[in-house]
What we know:
By secondary structure, the chain is an all-alpha fold. It contains 15 helices and no strands.
Amino acid sequence: xxxxxxxxxxxxxxxxxxxxxxxxxxxxxxxxxxxxxxxxxxxxxxxxxxxxxxxxxxxxxxxxxxxxxxxxxxxxxxxxxxxxxxxxxxxxxxxxxxxxxxxxxxxxxxxxxxxxxxxxxxxxxxxxxxxxxxxxxxxxxxxxxxxxxxxxxxxxxxxxxxxxxxxxxxxxxxxxxxxxxxxxxxxxxxxxxxxxxxxxxxxxxxxxxxxxxxxxxxxxxxxxxxxxxxxxxxxxxxxxxxxxxxxxxxxxxxxxxxxxxxxxxxxxxxxxxxxxxxxxxxxxxxxxxxxxxxxxxxxxxxxxxxxxxx
Length: 310
């Protein structure tokens, strides 16, 4: 209705309506001339066909533009709705532990410009790489692809805590193929992005858990790696088991029993601190955690072995 009313105003309503256009175009102080040279009042009155034809073309052009806008807006709405639908499917498959189906769904959108799709694809690629049946050659390809997807997600939306989180995870994975020097250098970048993810979303237990893993990793760094780190960097990354424990407990407070590995690492950290009683408490919980994924099964096995050692 709004389009038709605007279009109607462009068309001549009555005989002589062209005079109004002439008057609007007439410069101040002119006598009988309608704006530019050649637009004489007598010429307009004597031959209205070109003028009306021009108005008609203008009206049609305006109509085409308005139609284009409506179609474009509809296309954007449709595309947004489709993305939301794919995200819902992806999250359902992830929660169901359908790793391969999830990857097959998301790989169709590898050229997407949507950060939400891209970080989920990074996660799915990494999960496929972690499967025991994935060959070492395939794993390496998937790890680097995951990093590319995570990097693109971060470029598209720096305010996405998940993009920061998965970018840090993927950088860590790539470090296994880049050598000790690069791996230690990347540690600073990894920590920075985990901290940013926590800042953006303090209620995301996984980001907090991963910060705990960062601390645990550098707390148990072998002596030869520490020596290399000191040679390469004036202030090499370092941490303690106490600091790691703080993050693991914080993650558990935010979302109790959210992840079997957090339970396992609570047990392992207490073992490092020689507190066998609390270590056993958390290892029992890790062993009894429902196995939804292959990783959960591996954690159950490791927890059982550690408990046997106690």
